[in-house]
Specification:
This protein has two domains: 59-140 and 281-328, Periplasmic binding protein-like II (D-Maltodextrin-Binding Protein, domain 2), CATH 3.40.190; 143-264, D-Maltodextrin-Binding Protein, domain 2. 39% of the residues lie in helices and 19% in strands. It has helices spanning 2-11, 18-37, 70-83, 95-104, 119-127, 158-165, 196-206, 222-230, 241-246, 267-271, 288-291, 294-304, 308-313, 321-328, and strands at 59-65, 87-91, 110-113, 132-141, 143-146, 155-157, 187-191, 217-219, 235-239, 252-257, 262-263, 279-287. The two termini are 39 Å apart.
């Protein structure tokens, strides 16, 4: 506007007739409006760049899947809505396995997953002629959690975790976990069998995916597990790192010793995988046909660019830069 004022002041001699003045003013205003109308709207306060230029789109996108990935997708969808108000993104929480069932049945555009797609799920998608693209959107450190009143334990070994969670386990008291632990009932909380977290944990701790004792409180909703452990002073469970961070004042995070010392999940130990064996990548799978729709393509592009800081904000860890660049190259 200052530039426009200077243009007007310089272009209208004071001695000219009023009619001429009005005509010049109108012409200059028209030019200014046209120039402004040609500018692309951007997401970075007006500093246009190829990575932040917003292409306005509209439509509806629906997804489902992992409760671990859900906080990321929900946060990205909320921020995406601010720059694309005509796009509605809905996300469900059926667990990784439940999400893939819907995805491979053609019910959703994308599927959140806390593990890679399995061979049988690939076959189910192929049977429905559903092709997809895999995007690795970040990392998680699957976290071992107990009630904060349990001041006798700060770390468990992978052998102890296996003894607790194996299918034939008879461990129902803390004193059975390790000599010196108190005589205190042990109550377990964990993901349901449709959860990718359940698959991953049972594979790396028990040695076989889905091989686990069944006498524990199970839920696909990690918030239910948080509430259970918070209210049970003998409680022990596992879920994604973000749910611990969100409820850190109400829970106690344990370290895990896989043979090289006790390590707790944190952003650095998750990314460099020193927190082992419970560091894992997180994924979003998107139908190829859905990616041909402008609103879906722009949502995934936003996810992999402007949405990336939200991964850290909700409690997970961003992938390395080269991973995101490889993912962006997959967009049509």
């Amino acid at each position: 506007m200052k530039l426009l004022s200077r243009m007007l002041s310089a272009s209208i001699p004071r001695t000219r007739p009023v009619v001429l003045t009005v005509l010049v003013l109108g012409a200059l205003l028209a030019l200014a409006i046209a120039a402004c109308g040609d500018d692309e709207k951007t997401t970075n306060g007006g500093n246009a760049s190829p990575s932040t230029t917003v292409k306005k789109v509209s439509g509806a996108i629906n997804g489902d899947g992992s409760s671990t990935v859900f906080p990321i997708t929900e946060a990205v969808a909320e921020e995406f809505k601010k720059v694309q108000p005509d796009v509605n993104v809905t996300v469900g929480i059926s667990g990784t396995g439940g999400g893939f069932k819907k995805f491979c049945n053609g019910e959703t555009d994308f599927s959140d997953a806390s593990r890679p797609i399995k061979d049988e799920e690939k076959q189910a998608c192929a049977a429905k002629a559903i092709e997809y693209v895999e995007f690795q959107i970040g990392f998680d450190g699957l976290s071992i959690i107990t009630n904060p009143t349990n001041d006798f334990v700060d770390c468990l070994t992978t052998a102890e975790l296996k003894a607790i969670w194996s299918p034939d386990s008879k461990v129902n008291n803390w004193k059975d976990v390790r000599a010196g632990f108190p005589d205190k009932a042990l109550k377990l909380y964990g993901p349901g069998t449709d959860s990718g977290t359940f698959d991953y944990y049972t594979e790396v701790i028990n040695g076989t995916a889905k091989s686990s004792r069944s006498d524990y409180t199970a839920s696909e909703d990690d918030n239910v597990l948080v509430q259970g452990i918070e209210g049970d002073n003998g409680g022990l469970g596992y879920f994604g790192f973000a749910y611990y961070e969100e409820n850190a004042s109400k829970l106690k995070l344990l370290g895990v010793d896989s043979g090289t010392g006790c390590i707790k999940p944190a952003r650095d130990t998750i990314l460099d995988k020193t927190y082992k064996p419970l560091s894992r990548p997180l994924f979003v799978y998107v139908k190829k046909t859905a990616l041909q729709r402008p609103e879906v393509k722009e949502f995934i592009r936003y996810f992999l660019t402007d949405g990336r800081p939200l991964i850290d904000e909700v409690g997970y860890v961003q992938s390395p830069e080269d991973v995101y660049q490889a993912d962006l190259a997959k967009l049509p």
